[in-house]
Structure formats: structure tokens, C-alpha cells
Amino acid sequence: MFMAVESTLPTPVRTPASEKDAKALQFIEEMTKNVDSVQERVLREILGRNAETEYLKRFSLNGATDRETFKSRIPVVTYEDIQPEIQRIANGDKSPIFSVHPISEFLTSSGTSAGERKLMPTIHEELDRRQLLYSLLMPVMNLYVPGLDKGKGLYFLFVKAETKTPGGLLARPVLTSYYNSDHFKTRPYDPFNVYTSPNEAILCVDSFQSMYAQMLCGLIMRDEVRRVGAVFASGLLRAIHFLQNNWKQLAHDIATGTLNPKITDAPVRECMRKILKPNPELAQLVTIECYEENWECIIKRIWPRTKYLDVIVTGAMAQYIPTLEYYSGGLPMACTMYASSECYFGLNLNPMCKPSEVTYTIMPNMAYFEFLPHGSSTSCLVDLADVEVSKEYELILTTYAGLCRYRVGDILRVTGFHNAAPQFRFIRRKNVLLSIESDKTDEAELQNAIENASLLLKEFNTSVVEYTSYADTKQIPGHYVIYWELLVKDSAIAPADDVLNRCCLQMEESLNSVYRQSRVADNSIGPLEIRVVENGTFEELMDYAISRGASINQYKVPRCVSFTPIMELLNSRVVSKHFSPDLPHWTPERRR
Ligand code: AMP
Asked: GH3 C-terminal domain: which residues (predicted)?
């Protein structure tokens, strides 16, 4: 059971912590006061420099850089619409298709198309824009939490595998690109941004070794830690789970000053050699805290000076809030920024607010933003400065790297304004049914996975008559649960356990590459589970929905469930449970 814990939020001190902070805050004020003129300038710059690109010429923009011409000629597009051009760039076409600046690499989004990560073209200077947004985060945080320069941040940061496209361009996630850049690796010393994790540990591609070294450093520097974080809540919970599994070895390393022989990466070993010294007292403390069965408040117990958790708990990550509250003893959770592979969008100007109240202010200098009122046609786009409070919009983006009127797929609600800049609540990502961490499985992918798996049932004269799903995050790592109602036409040859286990694996093989990477490389999603329910269960589900007012004519089986009474009904009808017996196939190489 999770305790409901009231966060004790610090009140803002409201004076910039330094001259540098004052400048950053001044920049935010300027941007948010002049949203519309900044947006006009950004569009002018993008269209001016890219006037000679194949894409803008195709729509006869003829060098125009004003909004009206842009809006009347350039279509709103999805990834699939521009995929042929993306593929040409990936295959080595260096002509200016989207951007006159050379495409420096592809950023691989956790959003997928046909099962593979989407490839987002980027240009070198985008790193400066990303860094600029990062540089605004601490000046805002320092207004609310004083003294962060007196200690360090324990952040669990990871890189993922990189690949090359057929034309030789690197393809990797945006954070892998950022952590490998000089902007990050050779960042100047800033007392407000000192991490416990050495670059060598962050940049180690092996997720076990990277996590091990980062955790070890976090334990060694426990007294200095003032904030604990990861990009997403799921990443921080993975770190806690890792500590649960590895504390004995970690304590042994600390006690003896020797490094676990499983850590073989030479740069990590070399930097840990300098950090690791025998410290039996600390080893004992770690042992006492971790030995206990009860891990409530473990973050506060091990890192007692932590003032807040720095993790995103909005959107799909909201499901982790109760678990994080449990492990942290109710520490405030700061969601500091809203970003994607396509573009970094903006920041939370009130980072110590409750998770349910988080809003992000989009910075108008990052790209040109338009908003499609939810449910309207693409001819009704409004500008950033013109969105209306309490309305929901889909975010449309035009970037310096050459994406034009691109549908990101995020739905945002306007909650208010900071100066002239709207503030948005992240509502949801379109078409996402199941998500444990960065995986985003939609209804079509789930349907396809079910169809592939049910082929294995054919020879047993059995079919799947109904199904639904649930993202089970009660345990770490979380896993997909799929409820199946089966029609067994000949009980003499009903599918045995091992067949249904293989169905689990077959489903996993059919899911997108982000899911499979999380299973195989990151171990951040557990084996998929099929729960077979009694015949008639889905009819009961319908009866229940109708008793609550659903129309019989329009009733559709929900393909994902989370509502407690429905979960209870389904779970009370389970006749057997099956788990994937193996890991699905995954390599960094793309299938297409
Ligand atoms: P990716 O392209 O893999 O970097 O994923 C970017 C997507 O992650 C965004 O389009 C959002 O759907 C989601 N995301 C990023 N930041 C946040 C946030 N602060 N809160 C909720 N969702 C977020």
C-alpha cells in the first residue's frame, strides 16, 4: 500500500541566485513578453534561409517569409507524408531537401512508424538551441530551492546504441546525441550543475555498467547529493530497482575500495579507480538501509539532503507518481522541461508545483509553433500567441532543421499565460494505448501483435475472440498484460501452457523496436503476460459498461483498461497466466 504523502513545497525565494541567473531570467521575460514578434522573426529566419530547399520550392513559396503565404501554401504533414524525403536523406542524398544547412545526423524518436523509430533530421546548430533551453532550468529552480550550489545532483543519465543510415549518417536518440556533444562533455564548471555521475559512466553504452557506476558514485557522494533525478520517472524507478538487486555488491565495493569485475569498460574503470576508496562505515550504512525489507522513504534515507526529485511525471509518466512518493517519502517532484527529438519546446516556470498542476511555457525562439484546435480541420491552425485558455490543441511545428508544419502528436491544454506566453498542460500523446517507459504502443500495433500470436493457436483449433490490455507498473520493471478470451473449438487439443507462453513472445516480436529495445538492451520492461479469462468475461464487461450508461449500439471493447472495477472484474475471471519465456529479437540496426 502506498502512503498518501503531502509534499512540503519550499516557497520561492524569488531573487536570482547569481548574475548569470538574472540574465537567464531576463531572457525568459523578454521571450514571454514578445511571443508573437519572436515567432514572426523565427518563421522569417527559417523560411529565409531555407528558401532554396526542394521542399519549400515544391510549394512555390518563392522566397516569401510571411505567415499568410506560408500558411496558405505549405501543407500540415505527418511523418508518413515526409518519409520518402527522409529516406532519401538516410540513403545519402545531400541535396538541400528540407534545410540548406547540412543534416548533421538523425535523431531517433521514441515515436515509431511501421515498427521503427522515426528519423528526425537535425542540423548542428540545434545543439545550441537545446543547450540554451537547458541553461534556463537552474536559474528558475534557484528561485524556489536555495543552496543547490552547495551540493551535487545525482542524475541517472544514459546513452543508447547508435547506428548509421545506409548513407552514413548517425542515427541515435536526442539525449545520446546531446551527452556525446562537446556542449555536454566539455561544459564549463557551474556550481549549480555538478553531477555525481562522471561523463565516462554516462557515456558507457552498456546499461548495466553505466547504471552500476552511476549508482556507486551516488552512494559514495551521498552527503553531497541535493537532488535526485532521471529524465523520466520510469528511469528513476529503474535505478531504485537496480539498487535493490545490486546493493550487496555495491556495498562490498565501497567497503573494500575495489570495483565489481563485471565493470569491464576501460574508461569507467579508470575513472572509478580515482573515486573509489575503502569506506567500511558507508558500506555499513548502505547495508543497514538496504537490508531492510521495507524500502519506504529509501531515497531520503540514503540521500538525506535531497530537496527534490527531478523527473518528468507528466503524461504517460503520471502512473509512477504513487510509487515515487513511496520511495521518496513525499519529496517534491519537479518536472522541469518539455522536449522531443523534433525540437525542445519549453520549460516549467513553477517547477515545485504539484505534478497535477504542471504547465510548460513554450519558448518562442525554439521553432515556429502552430496549434490545431482539437478535433478541427487542418485549415484552422492558430498561432502561439492566439491560443485560448482551457482549449485543447495538437502541437504543429516548423523547425530550423526543416520540418514544416509537422504534427508532433501531442495534445496540450492551455491553462493560462505568463506575460504573453501561453502555458500548457500536457494532456496526452495521440494514439498511445500502452506505455511503460518511452515505448508507445498504439491500437493498430497491439491488434497486429494479437493477430500474429493467434496464428500459433490455429493448429489447436483455437482463436482469440476478445482482448484488452493493461500497463502493469506495480512492479519494476513494468510489463504489458493482455487479457484474452479464447474460443477453444476442440477441448481435446486445447493449447497447452507452452503454446500460450510462446504466444507472449510472438506478441513481443511483433511490437515496435522501442518496446523490444527496452526489453532487451535496457531491461526496463518485463516479460509480456497473457491472462486467459473465462468465456463470457467480455460480455460481462459490456454489461458493466451499459449499466454505467454506455449505449448498446455504440459499445466497443476498450483495448486498454485501467479503471479499478473493470480490472477487478477481469482479474476475478482469470483462468491461467502466461509469460514470455524469452527475449524478443532486437539489434540497433533498423529493419527498414
Ligand atoms: P521523443 O521524440 O522520443 O524524444 O519523445 C518526445 C515525446 O515525449 C513528446 O512529444 C511527448 O509526447 C513526450 N514528452 C516529452 N516531454 C514530456 C513532458 N515533460 N511531459 C509529458 N510528456 C513529455
From this structure: 445-563
